[in-house]
Amino acid sequence: MSTEPPPFGSGQSPDEDPFRKQPPPRQDGGSPYDPPPRQPPYGGGGGQPPFGGQPPGDQPPPYGGGPYGGDPYGGGPYPNDPLSGMPPLAESGKRVLARIIDMILVGIVVGLLAWAFRISQYTVDSDDFEFGKSLGQEALAAVLYIAYDTFFTVRNGQTLGKKLMRLRVANLNDGSTPSVQTALIRAAVLWIPFAFCCACIWTAIAGGWSFFDKPYKQGLHDKAAKTVVVSTG
């Protein structure tokens, strides 16, 4: 039973998450949570190896098994491939479009609030011309972007942009909707540098990483939170 707290506002436990991967059915009719049946060594003779040591059937696969050496994040009951049983990974181009939509939506709110509370500053004098956002506006942008991303990711894995593009965020190890902690880490890595220093440059680097990352097409914020983005249709 998972000890991860249920997403706020969802009213369900993580084990009831409809997106959570389920162990594949056992071919021998047993429970999928039971260990696989032990194979008799050397074709069913029932004896011990001729030179002693551990029977081959009891030896674990090297590096956790799987084409990539097992789940690199150490989670889930799927030793071969963490993506087994999940929808296909999202196209990086669609991820970019979804992110642009989110940036525009939240950016409009940030701009309106900054104007309403007069926290944008303009400094002009004979020696210097400076136009920039005040610390207050930067903090406001960071809080709103992180809150927006975290809330919708925990709710069902979809921000408004991702919903329009038919994408969702999922935990890499089991395909479930990310927890508050996971979503918060993911949002903070993406939006804090964006708000305070690097703006679109950091967003392009963090999000654009998915174009080149293999095998999971993760952005840098996905790697920090151990998540992937998958298609919903």
UniProtKB/TrEMBL annotation:
Membrane topology note = Multi-pass membrane protein
Can you tell me where the transmembrane regions are? 96-117, 188-212
This protein's UniProt keywords: Cell membrane, Membrane, Transmembrane, Transmembrane helix
Where does this one sit in the cell? Cell membrane
Taxonomically, the superkingdom here is Bacteria
Give residue spans, biased composition: Gly residues. Answer: 65-77
Record domain RDD: where: 90-226
Q: What is its main location?
A: membrane
| Segments for region (Disordered) | 1-86
> A single Pfam family, by name?
RDD
- InterPro entries hit by this protein: Pra-immunoreactive, RDD
Q: Which PANTHER family match?
A: MEMBRANE PROTEIN, PROLINE-RICH ANTIGEN HOMOLOG-RELATED
Protein name (database record)? RDD family protein
